[in-house]
From TrEMBL:
Domain of life, per lineage: Bacteria
Pfam families hit by this protein: AAA, AAA_assoc_2, MgsA_C
Protein's organism: Lentilactobacillus kosonis
Protein name, per record: Replication-associated recombination protein A
Occurrences of domain AAA+ ATPase (ranges): 38-150
Native organism taxonomy: Bacteria, Bacillati, Bacillota, Bacilli, Lactobacillales
Amino acid sequence: MQQPLAYRMRPTKIEDIVGQQDLVGPGKIINRMVQAKMLSSMILYGPPGTGKTSIASAIAGSTEYAFRTLNAATDSKKELQIVAEEAKMSGTVVLLLDEIHRLDKAKQDFLLPLLEKGSIILIGATTENPYISINPAIRSRTQIFEVHPLTPDDIIQAIQRALTDSQNGLANYHVKIANDALDFLSKATNGDLRTALNALELAVKSTNGDSDGNVNISLAIIEECLQRKSLSSDKNGDAHYDVISALQKSIRGSDTDAALHYASRLIAAGDLVSLMRRLLVIAYEDIGLANPAACARTVSAVDAARQLGLPEARIPLANAIIELALSPKSNSAMSAIDGALSDVKTGNFGDVPDHLKDAHYKGATDLGHGVDYKYPHDYPNDWVNQQYLPDKIKRAQYYIPKENGKIEQRLKAQYEQLRKATRPNNY
């Protein structure tokens, strides 16, 4: 039986990887490891279909090491022992261990000494946050890299490669895909290349050729094979992003009915992922400190929606949408962190004050590190006036409080009282 298109199109060398150029592009960390043949074990985490397996396969192909794939949840310790024996006989083996967050203690204890020796280069793949879900013993022996959903341009690049590949792809079918179908396929899969390629293959193989032997793929065919509807029939390719933008602006503008309308467009299109992600962004970007409880309830609503799936997912999300639209708004937290980041990125900062530097090592006192630090818990009300910012930016103010909700009104009063105590010359 022939393997799915997404499997057949997996890259065999690092240069063929689509997306994730911050990791595998020229001069980037994984590319450097491959070029120098100085591989270290790593954990790749991110959503499904974003290239974790492809990166592992390409690393093995580029370094000409043996490549093996196991699943931490379903494969036994015996399978790990077989890989270990192969490494002992033939040299280094690159092992992709899928669902590494499901690794039990027996398998972990078996792997650890092999990782220490370097006979197995472990590439763990997971959709879970490794800092939470993976045992510290494994984390300490690996580098952790986050992979991100592919962009529509990445997806289009991979689709076009598949359509012109006569050995592993679909070139022999003489496919002609309509521009709106290609655009929809690249966007509706939310950065999941596996889903995009497998839907494309289904579309091609289930469509009869025309009199010239060409297979013509329309938007309607892609919609059917993806089981998702296009948000719009327009030809500019911006409908998906326009709807998401309109959703956020409607909530920001406190128009509940408009927000529910645009959310319904995403639900009708089956785009639950974009809707959930955007609601999380809106909660913390636009409501923020004016109503932190609404932010927390949005997270709970998204978690519930993720577990329920459509159609029931619409119910907790509707609760969140209505509350966010009617809530007081504040973007002060986002503006504050963006201001601080701007200073850092432009080099507008100085050294950490000596009294705040780490003093937990021999010789720190001789350098003046930690000297004169005042421990707040030793003082009344657990607070004492001392400088925390570097001298160069000691008068900087990033947080500009708003008064659009009772919570931030209280935060503003506290913030201004503390600034008056620590920076009296600013007032």
